[in-house]
Specification:
Helices cover about 40% and strands about 10% of the residues. It is built from 17 helices and 16 strands. Helix 1 links the parallel strand 2 and strand 3. The termini are far apart. The protein has about 450 residues and is of the alpha/beta class.
Length: about 450
C-alpha cells in the first residue's frame, strides 16, 4: 500500500502559490510496464520534493502505487520542501536509516561517499534508450572516482521570464538578449514604473543558479575543466561589478533575504519586470493572475562578454543511500519511471524534460502548441533548443563533491551579495570566496574525490 505524506512547499524552487489549471488526463501519454529483471518484495521508501505542479505529484503517487502493486513492493512516498532535503539526507546518513530512494533538484555530489554507485543503473538506461543528455550525465558522474553518485532521468531549463508590456515601453518588446540589455531596460523600467528586477542575492537555490549563469557569461567559473579552482580572476571581478550596478539601479534590498519562492511570488503579483526561473511562475499566474500569465514571455540565456549560458533550473538527482535495504526495488522503479517520462513531462505541464529525448517524442509538438492553454500557443517553443544554452553546475568541469559543497553552502551568492551591499569591494569579495572554495576543494582532493 502507499502512504503519501504530502507536505506543501513553503519555499520551493518553484513554489506553488496558486495551482495552475487542471491537467487533461485524457490526452496523457499511454504508460508502459516491463517486468523487473529480478523478483522484488519488501518496502521502498521514497523521499522527493513537493513539485510545483500539484498534478505531477498526484500522478506520480498513483504511478508509484500501481507499479508497487504489480511487482509486490510496498511503496511509501514522502514529499517535502526542496530546501529541507539536503538536511534530511545528512540526518539519515548520520543515523544510517531512513529512505531507500531520495530525489533532489540539484547535484547531490557532496554525499557521494554515502551513496551507491549507480553506474549499473545508468548503463542499463543507456543500453535501453541510447545516449543520456551530457548535461544530465555531467551532473551525476564523478570522473575522478569513476562513480555515478546519482541518476538523472530529467531536468528543467532556467530561462528569463519577462513582462512584455513593461519591456515594450523601453523599446525591447522581445525582452533583453544580453546582460547589458537587462541593465539598461530594467533600470529604465524601475525609474518609469517603479517595478524592480527580480534576481536573488541570497542563500537559496535560485540565486545559486542565476549568479553562476552571470559568471559564465563573463568567462568566469569556480573551477576549470581540470577541476582547478579559478574563481579569483578578472572575469569574476567584472561579473561581480556588473551585479553591483544592476542591484543599485534596478533592485531593492529585499533580494538579500529572498527565499526560493520570492521571485515566483513577485512576478505573479505583478511586482517584478524580469526573473530567471523555469516556467513555474508563469504556470502559477495562469490561475492566480491571468493578465500576468498572458503578459509573461521568455528569453533564453542572456549573452555576456564571453558567452550565453544558463544553469539548469532543476537537475533531478536520484540517490540510493548505502544503508537502505531497498536498492533493487529503487533501481527497477527508476527504470520504470524513466521509461514513462513522457507522462512526467505531460503531468508537470512541460516543466520536466527528459534526459533521453527519444522517450518524449511528442515534446516538440506540445511546446509548439501548449496543451494547457498558453497564449499564444507556441510560447514555449523556444524550449525545444534549451540544451543549446544550458549547462551543469560546475561548468566547465563536473559537478564534483567540492562543487556540491560550494553550492550547498552558498559561497557564490554570498560573494555577490557582499559587494552589492558595499560590505566589501568586488576584488575583496572575490578573494574571500576564492579562499573558501580552495579550502573546500582541498578537503575533497585529499579524500581522493576531486581531481586537479
Amino acid at each position: 500500500m502507499l502512504r503519501v505524506a504530502a507536505v506543501l512547499a513553503l519555499a520551493g524552487a518553484c513554489a506553488r502559490e496558486e495551482p495552475p489549471g487542471p491537467t487533461d488526463t485524457r490526452a496523457a501519454p499511454q504508460e508502459t510496464f516491463t517486468e523487473p529483471a529480478r523478483r522484488l518484495s519488501g518496502d521502498l521508501r521514497v523521499l522527493l520534493w513537493s513539485h510545483f505542479i500539484p498534478s505531477h505529484d498526484q500522478w506520480f503517487d498513483t504511478f508509484a502505487r500501481n507499479w508497487g502493486g504489480k511487482v509486490g513492493v510496498n511503496v511509501t512516498i514522502d514529499h517535502i520542501d526542496q530546501a529541507q532535503i539536503p538536511t534530511r539526507i545528512a540526518a539519515e546518513v548520520q543515523a544510517r536509516q531512513g529512505h531507500d530512494l531520495i530525489q533532489y533538484i540539484a547535484p547531490l555530489s557532496q554525499f557521494e561517499p554515502s551513496m551507491l554507485d549507480l553506474r549499473d543503473l545508468t548503463d542499463e538506461a543507456v543500453r535501453r534508450w541510447g545516449p543520456q543528455l551530457e548535461l544530465c550525465r555531467k551532473s551525476t558522474f564523478n570522473p575522478t572516482t569513476g562513480r555515478f553518485f546519482a541518476y538523472s532521468p530529467g531536468w528543467a531549463p532556467d530561462p528569463g521570464n519577462y513582462r512584455r508590456s513593461l519591456w515594450q515601453q523601453v523599446g525591447m518588446p522581445q525582452g533583453p538578449s544580453t546582460w547589458d540589455d537587462l541593465l539598461t531596460g530594467a533600470a529604465e523600467i524601475k525609474r518609469r514604473a517603479g517595478i524592480q528586477l527580480g534576481l536573488g542575492l541570497s542563500q537559496e537555490i535560485d540565486s545559486n543558479m542565476v549568479l553562476r549563469a552571470l559568471m559564465w557569461s563573463y568567462g568566469a567559473s569556480e573551477q576549470d575543466a581540470q577541476q582547478r579552482v579559478v574563481l579569483n580572476s578578472p572575469e569574476t571581478v567584472a561579473a561581480v561589478e556588473y551585479m553591483s550596478r544592476l542591484y543599485q539601479q534596478a533592485m531593492t534590498p529585499e533580494v538579500f533575504s529572498w527565499n526560493a519562492a520570492s521571485n515566483n511570488q513577485g512576478l505573479v503579483a505583478g511586482k517584478l519586470s524580469y526573473i530567471v526561473n523555469s516556467i513555474s511562475a508563469w504556470r502559477t499566474a495562469q490561475g492566480a493572475n491571468p493578465a500576468v500569465f498572458d503578459d509573461t514571455f521568455f528569453v533564453p540565456a542572456l549573452r555576456g562578454p564571453r558567452t550565453a549560458l544558463a544553469a539548469q533550473h532543476v537537475m533531478y538527482n536520484w540517490v540510493i543511500p548505502q544503508y537502505g535495504p531497498g536498492a533493487d526495488a529503487a533501481k527497477e522503479f527508476l527504470l520504470h519511471y524513466t521509461a514513462n517520462f513522457a507522462s512526467a513531462t505531460y503531468h508537470s505541464q512541460m516543466y520536466d524534460l527528459c534526459a533521453w529525448p527519444r522517450l518524449t517524442p511528442n515534446l516538440d509538438g506540445w511546446l509548439a502548441a501548449d496543451p494547457f492553454g498558453a497564449r499564444p500557443p507556441d510560447k514555449l517553443k523556444f524550449l525545444s533548443h534549451a540544451t543549446d544554452w544550458s549547462t551543469n553546475i560546475g561548468h566547465p568541469g563536473p559537478s564534483s563533491t567540492a562543487v556540491g559543497e560550494t553550492f550547498s553552502t552558498f559561497v557564490i551568492p554570498n560573494m555577490f551579495a557582499r559587494a552589492a551591499r558595499g560590505d566589501a569591494s568586488p576584488q575583496q569579495s572575490v578573494a574571500e570566496a576564492d579562499t573558501q572554495v580552495r579550502a573546500i576543494f582541498e578537503k575533497w582532493r585529499r579524500a581522493g574525490l576531486v581531481g586537479g
